[in-house]
Design a protein that fits this description.
Length: about 210
């Protein structure tokens, strides 16, 4: 996952980047830098409100004119008016300082799960998947998938062409108690999915994770 972190406190910015070590992070310390770094590959923005060259809310509004990328705002202000202003500017969620990095990761995962619900139907190359009705067809043949396999498949098809790290997949599939999941549980789930969908372009990216190649 590609994450743009916009935070002028360099220690906090670095700390956030380290907490998402298995993902690709791009760090900006001002609105100007954020504008220059933002592109269509960015999949999530973590955005401070109080920046040296203006308000992060203005940048949030600008992004909303061109993209629906998930945005989580960071603010030292926990007043209701500040929170409302952030959400009305187009942010998907907010978190007030100080905060733990574990809480931030949980909020990021929650925002990404909510955004996944928008893409519940996938039809391409003989595949016909409906995640709402749990109907999965491969070249006209119905396929039965477990709940874990359905979650894994949805992550793959909604992120086609993007390498998904093992840590990210474990966090998102086993949302409760992911820290207790054995590493081979993901490998087993991927193997079973490949067996049921032999034509699926699920490739291993060694040392990182997996990708559904376009």
């Amino acid at each position: 996952m590609n994450i743009l972190i916009v935070e002028d406190d360099k220690s906090l910015n670095n700390g956030i980047a380290l907490s998402f070590l298995s993902d690709k992070t791009v760090q900006a310390y001002s609105i100007l830098e954020a504008r220059n770094l933002f592109n269509t590959d960015i999949e999530l923005i973590i955005l401070d409100i109080n920046l040296p060259d203006g308000s992060g809310l203005d940048f949030c509004r600008q992004i909303r004119t061109m993209s629906n990328v998930p945005i989580i705002i960071l603010t030292a202000n926990d007043m209701e008016t500040d929170i409302v202003a952030g959400l009305e500017s187009g942010a998907d969620d907010y978190i007030t300082k100080p905060f733990s990095l574990a809480v931030l990761r949980a909020r990021v995962n929650a925002v990404l799960r909510r955004n996944e619900h928008a893409d519940s139907v996938f039809k391409e190359d003989g595949f016909d998947f409906n995640f709402d009705t749990m109907m999965f067809v491969n070249n006209g043949m119905p396929i039965e998938l477990s709940k874990t396999e359905q979650k894994l498949l949805k992550l793959f098809v909604n992120n086609r062409g993007r390498t998904l790290s093992r840590d990210m997949l474990i966090d998102r599939i086993w949302t409760e108690g992911a820290e207790f999941v054995e590493g081979n549980a993901l490998s087993v789930a991927v193997r079973r999915l490949r067996e049921k969908l032999p034509d699926a372009p699920i490739k291993t990216v060694y040392g990182i994770g997996y990708i559904w190649e376009k």
